[in-house]
Amino acid sequence: MDPAVFDSLLGIGRFVLATTFLLLLTVPTAFIVGQMELKIMAQMQLRYGPNRVGPWGMFQSAIHGFKMLAKEDQTPDRADVPTFTLAPWMVFMAAAMSMLVIPFAPGIVAIDSEIGVIYFFAIIGLSVVGMLIAGWASYNKYSLLGGLRSAAQMVSYEIPLTLSIVGLVVLTGSLSFTHIVEWQLEHGWAVIWQIIGFPIFFIAAAAEINRTPFDMVEADSEIVAGPFTEYSGMRFGFFYFAEYVALFIMCAILVTLFFGGWLAPWPFPAQLDGFAGTVYGLFWFFLKTYFFVIVAVWARATLPRMRVDQLMGMSWKVLLPLALVNLFVTAAVVLALNL
Amino acid sequence: MAIPGSGILTGMGVTLRNLFRPKVTLQYPEERPHIPDRWRGRLDLIYDPFGEHKCEVCFQCAQVCPVEAIDMSGFDSQGRRIRYGLPEIYDERKDPNAYRRAGLAAEPMRNAARWQEDVDQPWLDGVIDGYGGRPESLVAIFGAVEAKYGYLPEPALRRISDRMTIHWAQVFGAAGLGGFRLLPTEGHLVTVCDCAACHFAGGDRLLAALEEELGIHAGESTDDGAFTLETSADVGAGALAPSVRIDTLVYGPLSVDEARHLVIARRAERARARA
User: Fold this and answer.
1) For chain A, how long is the longest CA-to-CA vector?
2) What is the pLDDT of residue B181?
């Protein structure tokens, strides 16, 4: 066989394998994140949380998922059926596709793209389209309000979210996640260099994926369940699925960009070689990622929902100027020190 | 807050501490709360949407109370004054036991004399035994006691309760709800309704006729104590306007002559009883 053809076939096979693996990974991820949310929030509210399904109730979120499958899937009479059907798929695919560029460990990345950062923020922003058409297609005023809120919120927060890492991109001189992690191997975790960028990213990421205290999109007490109001069964389940996966992805990206990705913290060797290095990297990557998942759950258990105007004000008046200052200061430092 | 975000950090600290604190949940089927045998929950009177007590003074709560801790007085749905327990209403309670529990020097009960009337106990026992002590004969026994004393004295009710081994609250509840008189009265209480409906239907003429017939004005009693005349707006029988209540019975609609006849009939009855 022609080596070029072989190489391209190998590339296709590798891509198919990686995407399949990532799609499969979303299932346990969503269940684990959902279970953490149930259990940790309960503990913070002085409850035990679910403890009946399986040992320590550890299959509760899985049971929730299967319950969704068993439920009737209804479509409202006046709904726009094609878009109504498409919306959960779009939201979920936005989350699943953005996983393609996350480097889990040295070499464990579906697409080691040179423009991974741009790809990631382009794809994760697609979920707003899903939310918006879900709200529109449902033919329900609460859905529409929720859809419009999601558009306003996610578009607003995408700007500080993206700007907060431009400073890091200037610093590392790369748009590749893998290269950013390798840069951190030499220079230490980027959070040290981007002490303002990290909190901006964290807050904006929470808003971007509609986590409490920024869950205006599905503010139950105001607009029922926002764009999800008319959804039932597994289509509704997919929105939640996507939300938990998106939380995991945002934390993974946070770890990759600011906390050294697969690199181990100081007292341990940063990375090892060979197969052991892969396992070692995966271990540290998931440990750090789930730490930030827990922080997000912790914030949800603590903070009340913000008002819509406060939310917008925070994005445009606080986070955006801070992100710009961060960018300019970083650029100035890079120029001055000739990094 | 001096530093932006310090409030958030305080809150996060609270939730973090809660994460490690013991949990308050009681794992119900496995763990049971310790509830004393006699615990019946917190007693409370509830109100309807118009701000009125929903309590109908039905005594059911008093009947199930194992320590007889509940007593009450009030008006039933017919507007009759009914009571369970000691004769005073709560704000004028002078029960020596209540004083003793409160650590005060005991004073005699203000209304005690009225309630310490001697009851002919052998006669009462005879009446009870005559009915075989059956609970369903309670109302008949009340009738006999009321015929003898004119009302149901408390010692008599206590004796009935003891001898028939019926719960005290049930005896008292039956007496109150059965329309028996629980207070000694001087003669008959004639109440002319002066609600708007009765007034326009001729209630003022009824009152004038009864005043003339009894020779007294409203609010007074006859010299022999046989009749007390009063007006009230809460006879509560608008459909029977104009109406008059004598003791516990409401009459209406009445003409002037019928009202006079009611009084004349009772006067004759009283004269017969005395003879």
Assistant:
1) 65
2) 67
- Cβ <8 Å between B15 and A47: no
Domain ranges in chain B are 48-85+118-183, 188-274
What is the number of structural domains in chain A?
1
Check pLDDT > 70 for residue B186: no
- Largest CA-CA distance found in chain B, in angstroms, rounded: 97
Query: What stretches of B150-220 show up as alpha helix (H) in DSSP?
Result: 154-164, 168-177, 196-198, 204-214
Task: Output the pLDDT for position B88.
Answer: 40
Closest residue in A to B21 (Cα–Cα) = A46
Which chain B residues touch A292 with a CB distance below 8 Å? none
Left if phi > 0, otherwise alpha if psi is -120 to 50, otherwise beta: which for B153?
Answer: beta
**Cβ within 8 Å, pair B18-A48:** no
What is the count of residue pairs from A and B with beta carbons less than 8 Å apart? Answer: 33
Contact B19 A44 (CB under 8 A): yes
Strands B81-84 and B72-75: antiparallel
pTM above 0.80, yes or no: no
Q: What is the mean pLDDT of residues B35-63?
A: 73
Range(s) of the domain holding residue A182:
3-337
Q: Is CATH 3.10.350.10 what the domain over B188-274 is classified as, yes or no?
A: no
